[in-house]
Amino acid sequence: MEAQNRQTTLNAMGAAVASALEQRASEIGIECTVLVTMATDEDGLLQTDHVTVFYRKKDAARLAELQELILKESGVPADRQELIEK
User: Residues 74, 76, 77, 83: is their CA dihedral positive or negative?
Assistant: First the structure.
């Protein structure tokens, strides 16, 4: 039961972070869908582990801006971000 509760918490937190990132991207004119993977660090603290972004071709020239936004808003560096054209 504890493992199931932990997974439910991870999923809910990931969905909330993804929603916030999508909102911020939308505010600067980038349409995308975001998936977030959460994990616990070595101290057992919850953290955003990986961000996958599905972006539109028209926004391809703004990927550096999008990666910077993700870093600023979630703390996830570019090497843990995956950007995929839809």
Answer: negative
